[in-house]
Amino acid sequence: MVNQKRRSFIAGSFLSGIASWAQASGGTAERQETPQEIAGPFYPITPQKDKDFDLTHIAGRDGTARGAVIWITGEVFDSTGDPVEDASVEIWQANAEGRYNHPNDPNPAPLDQHFQGWAIVTSGSKGAFRFRTVMPGSYPAGLDWERPPHIHFKVMKRGFVELVTQMYFPGQPLNETDRLLQRRELAEQKLMIADVLREEHDSFHHRIVIERA
Ligand SMILES: [Fe+2]
C-alpha cells in the first residue's frame, strides 16, 4: 500500500514535469510524423496477464526487475499538432541484459522472471502516456552488429494509420553504428531518439506523431 502511494506520488511529479516540458516546447514542436520501423522478430506472442504501465514489477510476484529503472513519458499528437487521447500505446523491449521474453530470441543472455517486457496503456488527457521500466540492454543482431538500447512501440487509434516504430536513447554510442537507425536521414533519427527529461538520465520523454487514415 505504502509502495503504491509512493508510486502515485512519483508519477504525479513526473506528470507535472511533462506539463512544463510541453509548455516550454510550445508551438515550435515538431509536427512531422514519427517514422515507421519494423516490428522485428520479437513481438510478444506469449500471453501474459499483467501489461500495465509498470514493467519493473509483475502483479502477484514478489521481486523487481534487474537493471536501471527509468521512466518513459510522452505524448501522442496528430500531424496538425492536436493531442490524440485514447490511443493504444504498446511497448515491448529486451530486459536489462538484452534478452526478449520470446521463444525465438537466440540471445543466450538470461531471462528475468520479474521483468514484464510488454505493456499497453491508453493515452490520456493531452495525449500523455507514461511507462516505468528498465533501461534495455543492447543485443547482437548479427556477426558485426550490436543493436543499441531501444524500445519498440505500436500506437493505434481508430481513424489513424497504425504506427509501429522504435524509440532510441540519446547519447548511446551504439546508435552511431546501428544499421536501422543509420539508414535514416538525421531529421528522421531525431524523431526517433527520446529527449532526456531529467539530468539524472533516468527519465525520458518521447513525442509521437501519428497520421490520420
Ligand atoms: Fe528490438
Please explain how this structure is put together.
By secondary structure, the chain is α+β, with helices and mostly antiparallel strands. The protein has one domain (2-210): Protocatechuate 3,4-Dioxygenase, subunit A, CATH 2.60.130. 16% of the residues lie in helices and 27% in strands. The protein has helices at residues 2-25, 179-182, 186-192; strands at 69-78, 88-92, 118-122, 128-134, 139-142, 145-147, 150-156, 163-168, 195-196, 203-210. The strands form 3 sheets. A 4-stranded mixed beta sheet has the order 4-1-10-9, covered by helices on one side. Strands 3-2-7-8 form a 4-stranded antiparallel beta sheet, with no helix packed on it. A two-stranded antiparallel sheet has the order 5-6. The chain is globular and about 45 Å long. Fe (ii) ion binds next to strand 7.
List the main descriptive attributes of the protein structure presented here.
single chain, 213 residues, alpha+beta, 3 helices, 27% strand, disordered N terminus, binds fe (ii) ion
